[in-house]
Amino acid sequence: MKAYQTGLSSYLNFLEQSKVAVQWPPNVALMTDFIAHLSLREFSPASARLYVAGIGYNCKILNVKDVTQNFVIKKMLLGFAQMKHRTDSRLPLTPSLLCNIFDKLPVGCSSDYESRLFRAAFSLAYFGLFRVGELVADSSSCRAHALLIKNVTFTCRGSVLEIEIQHNKSD
Q: Which CATH architecture has domain 2-83?
C-alpha cells in the first residue's frame, strides 16, 4: 500500500509540475507522458510498473475506468523494461575465486564444522555444475529442494559419487 501511495503521489506531482489539472480517471495520453517521465528520470522498470499499478488500484477503489489496463500502457511498460537492460554485475566463479572463498570461510563461519560444510557445498556446486537452488532449501518452508543424505550414494568402492537432485530449475 505504501508503494501504491508513493506511485499515486508521484503521478500527482508529475501533473503539478506539468501544470496539468488533476483529472480522474487519468487518460491514456497522461499515463504515457507519466511513464515517459519516469523513464527520463531513470526510474527502474519495476518502480514504473509499481507506480502505474498504484494508479490502477486507486481507479478500482474509486470504481472508475482503469486506464492502466489499456493495451498502449501495457506495451509501453513492456518496452520500458526491455529498454532498461542492466549489465550483469556478477562475476563468473573461477577456481581461483573459489579458493579465495575457501580462505575466507574460517573468518565467516562459527565453527570448523560449518566451514567444512560450506566448503563441501561450494565444491559440489562448482564441480557438479549445480545451481545453489538444486542443493539447498531457499527457506525453512521449502525443504523439498534441499539435498538429503539419502540422495547421495557412493558406488564402485567409493570412487563414484551419485547425486539425485530432487528439484531443478529446468526439469
A: Orthogonal Bundle (1.10)
